[in-house]
Amino acid sequence: MIFADLQGTPALVGRKDGLVLFDPMTHTVGGNSGIGDFGLEGINSFLRDHTCGDVCNRLALDEVAPLIFDTSRNEEQEEQDNSPSPGDADSANGEGGDNVD
């Protein structure tokens, strides 16, 4: 999951100067986190176009969360998504499920 298009406003956080982030946009491998989730296309676009700035640097995101997309996890998830669940076999044989005549 990638959080993109974060916006922020300076504010006191725990009685210290801070930044309150709001209006996040997320992109997930499945593309199902909500409106504006462009799935792998959004993730790849972010990885291709993002340039770390002051906020990334101050949060040390380049160290704790480097912008590297782990394709092996993506392939494992895709295999799980494409494998039939136990109920799918019954439905394919015309058994089980809610048949309405």
From TrEMBL:
SUPFAM superfamilies per the UniProt record, alphabetical: Protein kinase-like (PK-like)
All copies of domain Alpha-type protein kinase, residue ranges: 1-64
PROSITE patterns: ALPHA_KINASE (PS51158)
MF GO annotations: ATP binding; protein serine/threonine kinase activity
Keyword Kinase: yes
Keyword Protein transport attached: no
Protein name, UniProt field: Alpha-type protein kinase domain-containing protein
Organism of this sequence: Favolaschia claudopus
